[in-house]
Amino acid sequence: MKKILFILIFSIFLTNLNATESVKSISNSPNISKEAVLQKIDMSKVKKYKSFHIPFKANPNLSTLQYYFQRDLFKAKSSKLNRYFVEPSETPYEFEFDIVEDKSVKKQLRTKGILSYLYFEDDKIIIDEVSPNDRLGQLFDDETKFRSNSMGKSLPSYILGHAICDGYIDGVDSTISDWRIVKNTLYENHKLIDLLNMTSGDQKYAYNSHTLKGQEFNNQPQANSDLDDHNVNRTLHRWFRSKEPSANRYYNYNVMNTQLILNYVLFKTGGENFQKLLDKVFKEKAKIEDIVYFYKNEGPVSSGNAHNMFYATRYDYLRIAKAIMDDYQNETCVGGYLKEIYDRKVLKSVNHNGNRGEPHFNRTKYYGGQFHIGYPGLEEKVVFAMGGYGGKAILIDVEDSRIVVVNSIHYDHDRFKYDERKLLINPIKKGKKSFK
């Protein structure tokens, strides 16, 4: 009896130990605790804003920047239950390095809200810089998982490409009318290409993360939460039930289209196959080195509980970008999908009406398949770009094998605007010759 009791106790100990290690491994900063990070921040100088993020035009001090960055790191609960996560690859892609030191890049990281800057060309990392320790660098390491913000909008599109190629969905011209939760809503008869290009005719009712009332933002108790904090079924029937799309369906940037894409894939694959699809994209193809994950909203799979907010390390963002580039170059089925959404891109300019224009860091000429296309100065090149709040950006030059990955916490105030030409445009246009 004592032997059996010992075995039971030992088994419980091992289970708890494994659970602890599992939670630690998926935390956003596995080697740095929240308490340790907060101890490095002068809380007496922190300004807390009413909005969830630092407002676009705000001019925060360093302590405030640090506080909001740690808030992004530790906001998610330490549980697998509220995430769709992917385990690391058993054979993660190993980068080669041919590092160039560039003084102007270093200066940008000393003065702006940039966390990490990576430049990749011809299968080698050429520039690899992080914020100095006396600024933001002391708060993270190479295993820290950075929040994607709207860069995460592009990833459901890439996942959709795999779902089409694996036979779950016929193509981008398939409608989503077979999905029960869109019945009697604005999106009932929409094609996937409408959602991919954000040309759903929903401009009267949604923009960015907000619902609209008479073309003005609704005054919600929590800013930026109108379209983000619930499962898709609840959001659809709260805001879009019995609504009709506008006859003139121009580009209208909003998260609802992205949520519909990701959750339609979830619907068509089911929970188990959805996980297999995520594993295929990130674990097998991108060959990630650390766990990555999407948020999971409340409610069951059938309600549409997947969210496009994504977390990955700075190097795994580069691995994912390289996988996209490789698909395009190797003419895989997914590469054909990428070519199709690029060819079917739409103009953005018709939607720049008054104060509802694009955030500065997404100011491209076109939008195609949830990617920003046509950066000023790069119109002649085939570049797939992801952009997110705070100046986050990934630019993928699929023809000349060049990738830029910028993780940043704040951008729009003049003091924090980094040199886009130096950090984004010139490297893609001229390659490593743009660095000195």
Protein architecture, described:
With 436 residues, the protein is α+β, with helices and mostly antiparallel strands. The protein has eleven helices and 16 strands. It has helices spanning 2-26, 34-39, 62-74, 103-111, 154-165, 192-196, 232-239, 255-285, 314-329, 333-343, 420-430, and strands at 83-86, 96-97, 114-121, 124-130, 146-147, 206-207, 210-213, 216-217, 292-296, 306-312, 346-347, 366-368, 371-373, 383-388, 392-397, 402-408. The protein has a six-stranded mixed β-sheet with strand order 2-4-3-16-15-14, with helices on both faces. A four-stranded antiparallel β-sheet has the order 1-9-10-5. It is globular, with a radius of gyration of 22 Å. The chain starts with a helix and ends in a 6-residue tail after the last helix. The model is unreliable at 2-24, 214-225 and 352-356 (pLDDT under 50).
Instruction: Give a short account of the largest sheet.
Output: 6 strands, mixed
Strand content: 15-25%
How are the strands of the biggest sheet laid out side by side? 2-4-3-16-15-14
Q: Could you spell the SSE succession in H and E letters?
A: HHHEEHEEEHHEEEHHEEHHEEEEEEH
What is the average per-residue confidence, as pLDDT, rounded to a whole number?
Answer: 88
- Return the structural class: alpha+beta
Radius of gyration: 22 Å
* Number of strand segments: 16
Helix percentage: 25-40%
Count up the helices: 11
Low-confidence stretches: 2-24, 214-225, 352-356
End-to-end separation in angstroms reads: 73 Å
Shape: globular
